[in-house]
Amino acid sequence: MEEKKYVITMLVENEPGVTARITGLFAGRGYNIETICGAPTANPKMSRITISTRADPHQFSQCMKQIERLTNVIKLRDMTGKDAVKRELALICVKAPPERRTEILRLVEAFHAKIVDIGRESLTMEVTGKAFLIDELLALLAPFGVQKLSRSGLLALYRES
Questions:
Q1: What is the Cα–Cα distance from 140 to 120, expressed in whole angstroms?
Q2: Which of 55, 146, 148, 153 has CB 3.0 to 4.6 Å from 35, enough for a Cys bridge?
Q3: Family, per the entry (predicted)?
């Protein structure tokens, strides 16, 4: 069977070791977590963990069943479908000598990014959006010289009706 990209999100008890048990489950099944992001929710007793991974459908189904059995998992959802809001955040530091800044600022504006730090020879920007748009911006910034990059990993929520 061919591997497919999956996105899952779960509400878990905000307790030590929960993330380790979940990631251990993935490692034990022999496949990689591409991105993982977790943080407390509006309820400080719960956290939301969002994971993107690649697996064949059978492996993924088995993994979902095992995650559901973990005692600290309150709710688990497959967010692979289109009825979810999915976003990622990136901080990008790019070489920006004064004579090239206008070009870079045009790109920043076109991607609705925001300059968050200005150095003598660099600019650091923040961009939020779909992962493929961040990839496109990075490709356009590559000729300038990307010095540093930090990405949050995927975040996802179901759309409210």
A1: 21
A2: 153
A3: Belongs to the acetolactate synthase small subunit family.
Q: Are residues 37 and 10 in the same domain?
A: yes
Question: CA–CA separation, 45 vs 54, rounded Å?
Answer: 30
Q: Which residues of 46-85 are buried (b: 16+ CB within 10 A; e: fewer)?
A: bbbbbbbbebeeebbeebbeebeebebbeebbebeeeebe
Look at phi and psi of residue 70 and say left if phi exceeds 0, alpha if psi is from -120 to 50, else beta. beta
- Residues of the domain holding 64: 4-78
Query: Cα dihedral sign for 104, 141, 88, 147?
Result: negative
Q: Give yes or no: residues 99 and 144 share one domain.
A: yes
Q: Are residues 52 and 73 in the same domain?
A: yes
